[in-house]
Amino acid sequence: MRAAVAVALVVGGYLTFEFGRIQADYNVVDAAQERRDDGKRIAELEKQIGGLKQEIALLETHRNIDREAYKDVETSLANLQEKIQEQGDAIAFYRGIISPADGQRGLRVQDLRLSKGKEDRQYHVKLVLVQVMQHDRSVKGEVNFSLEGAQDGVATTYDLEQLVPADEASNWPFSFRYFQNFDRQLILPEGFLPERINIEVRSRTKSIASVKQSFLWKTGQS
């Protein structure tokens, strides 16, 4: 009897459940079809998402390639402009030797640059001497270099031999036909404030006169 009652309850419950679904217009076949349709739609959307991800990756790749190509173009342009500037400077330099604007012949200081060294009170003097419109012979001589300034508030002048390191020669000879470059190292005395550079290019070649020029002390000057 108990088993029969239990079976009757289960069957009754199921029939009640099915009756309720029928009353609610629920159809098992339609529900299964909807689930299949939803599955297909999800699969299509996932496929579309995968395609969009591939397109995004391709666009990012193209963007990176374009960025690298732009950088290469920028670098090439900068190098080209630098070469053009160098060639322009070289042309101006040689024009100044062969045909200067002032038309003056003889020796002259073409360029003077100062730069700070690695050590404290260490500096580099880069000097370019040229012989203008007079190239039938070489010119020889020596550069006389001195530095004016204030030593602890007192006006003081130092010669080259007082400024160069102990292991460097204090003389400054030159010998050239067109031009000559120099790079000398200076060690300023403690407490000395430089103000002016005096350069005398002393010629020992007959018919080529010596020259004197002064420059304000300024790092990076030319």
What keywords describe this structure?
single chain; 32% strand; 2 domains; three-stranded antiparallel sheet; alpha+beta; Immunoglobulin-like
Write the layout of secondary structure elements.
Elements: H1 2-23, H2 28-98, E1 106-116, E2 122-132, E3 139-151, E4 154-159, E5 173-176, E6 179-187, E7 192-203, E8 211-216
Query: What is the fold named in CATH at topology level of the largest domain?
Result: Immunoglobulin-like
Q: How many separate helices?
A: 2
Q: What CATH first level of the largest domain would be assigned? A: Mainly Beta
Q: Just name the CATH architecture of the largest domain.
A: Sandwich
Rg over alpha carbons: 45 Å
Spatial gap, N to C terminus: 119 Å
Q: Summarize the helix and strand pattern as letters.
A: HHEEEEEEEE
Quote the average pLDDT.
Answer: 79
Task: List low-pLDDT spans.
Answer: none
Output the CATH homologous superfamily of the largest domain.
C2 domain
User: What is the number of E strands?
Assistant: 8
Largest sheet: 5 strands, antiparallel
Q: Tell me the structural class.
A: alpha+beta
Roughly what fraction of the amino acids lie in strands?
25-35%
Portion in helices: 40-55%
Overall morphology: elongated
* Count of spatially separate domains: 2
